[in-house]
Structures are given as C-alpha cells and as structure tokens.
Amino acid sequence: MEFVTLNNGVKMPILGFGVYQIQDPAECERCVLDAIRVGYRSIDTAQVYQNEEAVGRAIKKSGVPREEFFITTKVWISNAGYDKAKASIQESMDKLQLDYLDLVLIHQPFNDYYGTYRAMEELYKEGKIRAIGLSNFYPDRYVDLVEFSEVVPAVNQVETHVFNQQAKAHEIMKKYNTQIESWGPFAEGKNHLFTNSTLQEIGDKYNKSTAQVALRFLIQRDVVVIPKTVNKNRMEENFNVFDFKLTVEDMGKIAALDTGESLFFSHYDPQTVEYIINLGK
C-alpha cells in the first residue's frame, strides 16, 4: 500500500474502500469484512449512507488492530451547525464503535457548514478526530472556508475520474496544501468507462483491466481513491494497482479524456441543490 501524508502529518492510504449505496446491513458488513481480508485498511462511510453500524461491526469482527485502520465518515446537511454536528459526530463514533475517527468530512457545502467546521475543529484539537476536511466543495466555497478557518482542511473529496479530472480544483487545493480525494473513480461506469478503447489499449500493455488503469492514473496524480464494489474479486482487482506504472505517454493519452465537466450533478443548479438538501432529512 502507498500512503499520502496529510497537511498535519497524518498518513492516509492512497487506496481505500467505499461503501456508498451498500445499505443492507448484512451485505455491508460482509463487503467490509471481504475488503479487510483483501488488505484494505481505509474505509469510507457517511452518516447519510445509513451503514455506519455495519461498518463498525465488520471492523470489530475483523480482529485487525484499530490503529491499522483509517476510518472516514461525513456529516450530512441535516446535522449541520455547531451543536448538531458535534452530537452527530459522537453518534457516528458510537455507531462505528470507535473512540476516535481518522477523518471527518463535511459531506456537502450547504446549511450551516461553518458551524459544522467549528465543531470539527474543536474535536480535532481534542484528539477525537485525527484529520478534518470537506467533500463536494467547489473551488469558490473551498477557498472561502479555508481563508476563514483556523485548521486548513486536510482533504477535499470531489468527483474525480478520467472524464472529470479536476485539474483546476486540484491545483487550488495544492496551493492551500489540501489533499484531493476521488469519489466515483470509475464514474459509476458512465461514458462506457469499462470498455473505453484508450484505457483498454493501455491496460493490454500491462495485462491490466480498464478499471485498474483508471485507478492507477489517479494514483499517479496523487489522488486518493475509494472504489466501491460488492464483489470480492473486483476488490482484489482494484487493490492490485501497485505492481505497474503508467508512462508519461500513457498519462497523456488518459489526460486527453478529460471533459472538465461533471457526469453527475452541478451545485450551481438550484434544482440539484434542492434535491440534495432534501436527501436524508
């Protein structure tokens, strides 16, 4: 496993396991246990995923020492604001059966996210959270929060994949020393990612799948990735991306796939914002 060092010195695996949309408790617990057996130690969940308890049970059952894990959760919009956020983070720790969290992110830049961040800063200073950060913060809101906070976000988790490479946002995060993390590294299969001819051609050279090439591209750009799958064979495939390296030419060909646009949603669209803020209310 390779690691990135966050702006406070905490080391974070560059490859983790995501549990978005794995809501059935038994299935989620099974998937996390499978991932741990494969070798994953970074697990990414969220309050709105409604599976923190299942993740916690899997961590306990695994028998792996707590200090080997890097556990991330995210505060949802309905829990925004200082008091509610602080209480919700403690609730997340209880559900996960953990005494501390490795990373807590603000899930979306809506509601009183400044109050949420103040609560996170306080818990960070108390040692209950090892690192704090953001998710889905576009450059404008990201810079605004950075400039008016005591603790620079360690991570900003945004949609990042071969078709939306976030080059501009990545550069801005580098300026402030915030680690970029990808959600949706496979673009959830959109744009026919798994059969993309460029990725297939490059993968054939290394006897690797298009998925492995897509992950390797992001990893070589120092992007943390958290692919999600419920299939153990796919977990193993996604994990085996450290035994080959893309050339400069390979990287250039994949860089040319960038459209610079989201394949999912825009926070600049009022209807999208209304939809998102009503989730999990």
Automatic annotation (TrEMBL):
<dbReference type="InterPro" id="IPR023210">
    <property type="entry name" value="NADP_OxRdtase_dom"/>
</dbReference>
<keyword id="KW-0560">Oxidoreductase</keyword>
<keyword id="KW-0521">NADP</keyword>
<protein>
    <submittedName>
        <fullName>Aldo/keto reductase</fullName>
        <ecNumber>1.1.1.-</ecNumber>
    </submittedName>
</protein>
<feature type="domain" description="NADP-dependent oxidoreductase">
    <location>
        <begin position="16"/>
        <end position="258"/>
    </location>
</feature>
<dbReference type="GO" id="GO:0016491">
    <property type="term" value="F:oxidoreductase activity"/>
</dbReference>
<dbReference type="InterPro" id="IPR018170">
    <property type="entry name" value="Aldo/ket_reductase_CS"/>
</dbReference>
<dbReference type="Pfam" id="PF00248">
    <property type="entry name" value="Aldo_ket_red"/>
</dbReference>
<comment type="similarity">
    <text>Belongs to the aldo/keto reductase family.</text>
</comment>
<dbReference type="InterPro" id="IPR020471">
    <property type="entry name" value="AKR"/>
</dbReference>
<dbReference type="InterPro" id="IPR036812">
    <property type="entry name" value="NAD(P)_OxRdtase_dom_sf"/>
</dbReference>
